Every structure is written in structure tokens, then in C-alpha cells.
Amino acid sequence: MRQYLTLIGILFLSLWASPTPGFGFPTISRERTNTADPNAAWQIHSRITPNIDGQNIFSIQYHNDGKSAIIGTTDFYIYRISLLDGSLIWKVQAKMYYQKEFDGPKIFDVSPDGKTFLSFGQTDPERQSSERYLVLRSSDNGSITKKFPAEFSTFYSHTADIDYRYPGDESKDNREAAGLSPNWIQTIDNAKYIDGGRKILVSYKHNMDGPHFYDRRLVVYETNSGKKLNEFQLTSDPESADWTQPAGFEIAHHQFSYLHVNKRNTIIYGNAHGRIHEVNESVMVQNSMIPLVEEKPAGPIVYIPLSTSSDLETKDRQTVRSVTVSPDGKILYCSAGIEGGYIQVYGYNLETKKELFQSSFFDAGELIAPSNDILIIGGLFSSGKFNIVDTKKGILLFASNDEDTYIHPYIFSVHPKLREVLTLSSGNELLILRPRGAVSPW
Predict the structure, then answer these.
(1) N or C: which end of the chain has fewer CB within 10 A?
(2) 366: region left, alpha or beta (phi > 0 left; psi from -120 to 50 alpha)
(3) Is-above-0.70 flag for pTM?
(4) Is 3 a residue whose pLDDT tops 60?
């Protein structure tokens, strides 16, 4: 009888510990060339030379028609080009002062109806330290149709002795007279249309180097009116916080990854301490109503990715680089880890609250899940690789190989309807990647 009970116990534990059936992740090497599954590999469908006056591409985004793309260049121009032959549809100057070596107008998102797209403007295009703010531009000609006001910081901490809130006009004038830069302004980091295009979710970071590692904020606007509907200040959860540090974070936020999940009507975000939180409108309201960052709610933790490396003594401080959720709202994916070869991709079932897989170590950056089976994986660094994975079959569908064709690891765009990805190659050549056979929807 004891033997039967032991066997049953072993069987139960093995079933409980095994990954969820139908999900997996292939081995991806950081050093060696990776090969896609020959029976399912995606291919380069077409090559396009865009008519952009020889300028270098900074960002690209599919238009919702799927037949054209909007491009931002390092000369601070915005182009819309045809993906049939690369011909120019329109171009417009987006004059700004560069803030880093590789810079240009970021094309954040295109509206679901295709009429507008999100980018940014700069309050003083002649001054490098001036903040950048959200703008809506027309997809018909690139003109600005709406400007959103620049945001001031709300960061206030007793324990870290920091107050970046607007100090008033007198203090502002005194700082200017002393030749000091304003320490209360924020600059836009990213923006996405949500709720069918009726709202815009925007992330901001502090405009000064140093504070931008922790002073991060989410703001929700109504698209038509520009009215601010809600906001949320990034803060650490109490269990992992060190309140002698700003916002409780011992680790800098080089990225602040977040996603609005339509099926759940929530925002999921990851932080530098390796915690993935979920917040709804109520948590955001509570957070925004409390002045002190130490007392603001961070929202419940939904997942903590743990490193499998034997080299790391602390397993639960895997800085989250990117988060995404499958369209059905069930599967959370994240890339997390510390630099130097310890970054992994994780899969987690939000319904069963079980981990699905942990990948091998490679420099995974931005993740996009356009369907319930496909995961697009950008590289974290310029030397990284671009990969496409089928997580239900656990196979590699595409892996960039510089010896064959270079693909930029983090400048790409996913087709809004079809199984197709637009990527950037060398010489500003655009590549369209597709599966073999007839084109199919996501």
C-alpha cells in the first residue's frame, strides 16, 4: 500500500512540476548561429529601398493599411512611404535638438482608424535640455493636429530627501538666473493608443540624467479632448524597497516596460527589482492622490522571474527589460535579467498562475506577442539578434544572422493584421518577413 501511495505521490509531483502542455521555448544561443526550424521557418519576403533622401532610419511603424510605413530619421524628418516600391507619400520636418548620439523622432503608435499617429515635439528645439511632449500627427500629411502640455514631475520623497515638484515661479526665475536647469520637468518616453483609440497611455521620465533612472510615471489621456484621466508614479513594493534610495529602488531603470491589457482592462508593468505588477484604474487613482512616493501603492505583484544561473546568489532581482501579454490575455511573457549574459525570457500563465518556461541565456530585449502562438523578440543591444518563436510548438521560426543578412535588433514593426514583420537591414533597406506560403492573419 505504501509503495502505491509513493508512486501516486511521485506521479502527482511530476505532473505538478512539469510545464503546461502546448507551451515551450527553443534554445537560443548568445554566441553561436541559431537555426530556425526548417519546416516552419519564416523568410525574407521582399526588400524595399525607401525614398527618404538618403537619411538614416531611427524608427519605423506600419500604418494600419498594412501597405505603407511611417519612418522617423536621425535628421529629424518624418516620412510616409509605400511598402510596394518604397516611393514617397509625404515627408515633414520634425525639428528638434538631439539629446543623445543616436536620436530622431520616435513613431510611437498609429491610431486604430489610421488617421493619426503618436510622436513628440520639443518645447525649445534649440536647447538640448528642453523637454519633449506628446503630439498627434495626421497620417495624411504628417502635420501636428494636437499638442499635449509638457508634464512636470510629481516626485516627492522624505526618506531620500528629494522633491522634484514645481517649486513656483520665484524659484524657477532664481534657478534660471543662477544658470541652473529646471529639475522639475519630465520628458516623454513612450506612448500607445488604448481602448480602441479613445485613450492614450503615455510614459514619462525625468529629463535629467540620474533622476530619470527612478522618476518614471504613467499618464492616461482622453484622445479627443486631451484631458488627463489618470496617472501613476513608479514606486517599489514595500518588501523589496530600500527607502534610503529614491522610490525604494537600488537598481536603475534603464527601461520601464509596461502594457495595457485589453482583455483585463489593466496595466501590467515590470520594474528594475524584477517585480511584475498589475494596476487597475482604482490603484492608479490611489497612487496619484498620495504625495509621498514611499506611501504610494505599487499594485499587486503578479509574477517574479527567478534566474536559473548558478553564478547569481540573488535570484529574484532580475531587472525586467520588456513585458507583453498574448491577445487572449492569458499568457504573460517577459525578458528579465542583469547585463553580462544573464538575461532570459519567461512565460507565465496569468490564469493558472504557473510558470510555463524559462529560456536559455541570451540578450533578449523588446517582446511583442501579436498572436496567441507567436512571440517577436528584439535584441537588447545594438549587437543583439532578432528572433521569432512559436511558443506553443516551442520552435524557432526566424533568427537573424549577420553573415547572411543583417537585421537591426530593435528597430522593427509588426503588421497590424497579417503574419508579417517589417525590419531594418543595412544601408537603410527594409525587409518584410513572412512565413512560407499564402499570407495569413495573426
Answers:
(1) N
(2) beta
(3) yes
(4) no
